[in-house]
């Protein structure tokens, strides 16, 4: 007899309490109570497994609960991504749960848009307001006038709502502003992307090459653990970065490359490897096409040619090329994560993918494993009734032939009247602070001002919430169920997100918000469940998964399967040729270079610096910079400035300066950190600071928002990504 959802809740709750009482707990880590920073003096009387939402990695966590308060969060040792460990952000998750600035009730705007003035209302009033406007919008403009911006695992409920409503305008900044170019590059080369999380077998690598990838600062948990294990086993690093990053400090070779010249270095490395026949000949003959075209293309891409462009000595290029090739097949060129740099990013990603192919890394131990996923049938609902129009063509009518996802900035521009083939009139914004996530902030604001409706579904009163017409406060990831998580991975698994404590204040889980809106819109058939417990019970039953066991452990692994060629996998490549495509006929047919080539980029003037930005271990952009626990570790960002240039400018440690970009946009004051660890032609800061939202009492006015200085982008012609490392700043002393 199938297990009912009510039985599941009753049994799993009792099991969780018993398991916690009978097990020894780890030593004390971060702890919290509803009063910021207080230690309630206990590890908890029960432990609830779930998975994290402080970044996209979705690590398994164990939450210790005492008298309804979460006292500690630690990694779930049974979860393949966390393996019992968490990054600083994950352990500080209680700082979000008990953030005193959390949104507490639905809000309606009471003044002009952007005034950040609201009144609290009931859920019925807020949902009726949204549904009424969506009905009128659909009648007047058609369903495609509505766009969704989503970031976070809970966004799946709103994607269902959008598809039922009839709009395909579903976008995430993580595509065009982050990883999209490398995904497209690997799809063009291997027929599939690099994965998210990436399918990198770092733990077994002999040589790991990082190109602008800051492992140890971006703190992608599994990869950082794998990197530590690899180093313990004697693996060597080659790090290419204008900045001496944490990873560079572990490297055998640090190449402080001139920004914007990575493709030249990659081509020169390939030149050496091909000319000296250091590539994996058997692998290429078996799996690849286009080698002769590549060889001819590389003939003049000599180390001397690359030295003139990159600033890396020719002999160093030769030495590192030989070193990288000497590690094959356990030599891995990491694909990177935020790869939207200079507008030629798909071509740079293609160069990385091709170099990995020369090394025989795809599908090999120490390279890229070929993942498997737990087969879980989708929850049934009626077919979508409306075939939506495609996303609107962006200004200028440019079409991006390999844009495999809707472009967030394209949706934004299409909200400015007259700039696209049809106008977007309404936004649903789930879990993404678009004002900081999208470049060209002035265009984002211009688009918002032209909307008929902006609805923000969020946990904190971020900048985008301040621009909303209606605010729907979501429960945090520690207070809600979400859909099952079963991504492709080395070990197939399914994980559950479940409430650790009851939702605080008048907040609601995303599934409930989406279902309530669906019912008001006449789309209730697309949410054919009474509540999420029923949904989860029916989905797991269809997959043959024991839901009680899943709730007890947080994760269930599937049967072990081979994931590398060495383990017996016969790789397949869903490209047009069925093989690895070094030469891309798809690119050629689209009028784009079929092999990567170097294009010089604009350089900073004599008094300018190229603006670079990235992450810190304890922060995930705006999701954590209002977190008092994590903010005490790093409360603001600072400006990395080459020590010699600082001396020339007469600037000392912690002196306040103002940055002025090429378009005259000025930053608030920021502290200078003179250092030898960065090239003299660029500056660097951590992204996600400089909030001006009134409701963020801890994060407001701390540091500088680099997005305000990103007023120019270089658009990738292959997939539409926004290269953002094309902005320059000059430095002035801040006026007292």
Summary, kept brief:
By secondary structure, the chain is an alpha/beta fold. 30% of the residues lie in helices and 15% in strands. Among the domains are: 177-371 and 564-589, Dimethylsulfoxide Reductase, domain 2, CATH 3.40.228.10; 609-733, Barwin-like endoglucanases, CATH 2.40.40.
Attribute tags:
736 residues, alpha/beta, Dimethylsulfoxide Reductase, domain 2, Barwin-like endoglucanases, seven-stranded mixed β-sheet, six-stranded mixed β-sheet, 23 helices, 26 strands
Task: Give structural notes.
The chain contains 23 helices and 26 strands. With 736 residues, the chain is α/β, with parallel strands linked by helices. Among the domains are: 177-371 and 564-589, 3-Layer(aba) Sandwich (Dimethylsulfoxide Reductase, domain 2), CATH 3.40.228.10; 609-733, Barwin-like endoglucanases, CATH 2.40.40.20. The strands form seven sheets. Strands 5-4-15-14-13-6-7 form a seven-stranded mixed beta sheet, with helices on one face. The protein has a six-stranded mixed beta sheet with strand order 20-22-21-26-19-23. Strands 10-9-8-12 form a four-stranded parallel beta sheet. Helix 6 (173-190) packs parallel to helix 13 (345-358), helix 8 (262-275) runs antiparallel to helix 11 (303-310) and helix 8 packs parallel to helix 13. The radius of gyration is 25 Å and the shape is globular. Mean pLDDT is 92; it is low at 1-42.
